[in-house]
Design goal:
The protein has about 290 residues and is an alpha+beta fold. The chain contains 8 helices and 16 strands.
Length: about 290
Amino acid sequence: MKKNILFIINPISGGKNKLDFPFLVKKYLDNRLYTAEFAYTNRPKHAFEMTLEAVDKGVEVVVAVGGDGTINEVASAILGSKTIMGIIPCGSGNGLARSLGIPLNKKKAVLQLNKWNTRLIDSACLNEYKFFNMAGLGFDAYISHKFASLKGRGFSGYVKTAFSEVINYKPDRYRIDIDGKEYIRDAFMISIANSSQYGNNAHIAPKALLDDGLLDICVIKPFPLYLFVSMGLRMFAKTSEKSRYVEIIKGKTIRIQSDNNAMVHIDGEAINLGKEILINVNPLSLCVLY
């Protein structure tokens, strides 16, 4: 029998035009395998709401057509159900899609759905919020907050924002509990990685795996400002863990406390969650097409 597949399209993600996307699907999606429908988001959390409705109706596959934020909303609504998630990467970084090996080209990504390759991956929970690729606090969360207000998104906008803000950014002190062991660290930022990368092939945790039941807690210690560029280049070379300013610890249950209110990003979306956050991993909890 044909599978019902719903494409939830974020029309503004990544600054990429998606007006032709339904025509692309009709041309390249295997209509012997799927019966396709389309829906467009028009506000925050709309993808989450539409996915919950689709799950309730028994839709077999919901595809997020957007960036990591759209993917987060769709995946969060799918957790705990039998619905499978697909991804057409159309964001600024596309971290989760890259980690799964999903083509960045929309046509190729649609064709990939026809292969029906499924995989279970881990998810994580930060306080009451779910994430699937990367969460963090410190400088990257601060930049995510600034980045959200930019008219021109994309990798270049992110880089420009980072360079303009790093001069005045002050590291913080954190108390970190990982599976019962306590660490006190001054940190420029702390990333909690389910996959290896933020996006754009910038690998903060090169050995992180999506299906190992663990999160990689990456502590970036304060470093001289003149090393800012080389620290970034290390991520693209997958050598960040070799820096003496980087400490990576794997764990399942993490509590992070700071003296100041922590700006946190969850799959790239910034939010203020106060002075303490609790993170848990949920092994093999999301089924995705890749």
